[in-house]
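Aim 2 progress. For DNA mismatch repair protein MutT, the working sequence is reproduced below.
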Amino acid sequence: MEELTAEALAQRFAHLDCEVPLLSAGSERVASVLIPLLTAEPCCPVVFTRRADRMRRHAGEISLPGGLLEPADDGSVISAALREAQEELGLPPAAVQVQLVLPHCRNSHGLVIYPVVGIVTRPLQWLLQAEEVAEVIEVPLGHFLRAEHYRLERRTYDGEEKQSLVLDCGVEQIWGLTARIMNNLRLLLNPKD
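Predicted structure tokens for this construct:
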């Protein structure tokens, strides 16, 4: 892939055909996550959160900011992703230029998740929601665009052994749904892989 500049990514995103859903009341349980890209910075970091250790589910895991749609979102997965990023990271919606919504995927509990890709302007300071977020982790986008960084691994989760996609990022590991979302983005940006 060419150099990861804001212009190059915007051109690539412009050629992708991804439908933006508007969900009606009574839709199945739906969530959305934001894939925040700091395209103005060297290596175009992707912003992730490490979930707080006291979280009931997925404690300590690396994830994308996001959560369930709420009535205030009016069925918009984009609104939900922006709201959640503001709640978890203190990222103002005005600091995000939404590029596209990736096709939905399901987690192991059947929840439907829509990933929203956004070009983000870094705030002066991340304002973390301490109950949910322990820290911000930034990983260069180029790391996710290389197929050799992904592997399948058997893991025990919720008392069951499952096969999961794993992505090693230095001393950190991103796995499960978050790894699948980033792999889906890789496949959209590099369709020949």
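The domain at 6-142 is CATH 3.90.79.10 (Nucleoside Triphosphate Pyrophosphohydrolase). This observation will guide construct design in the next reporting period.
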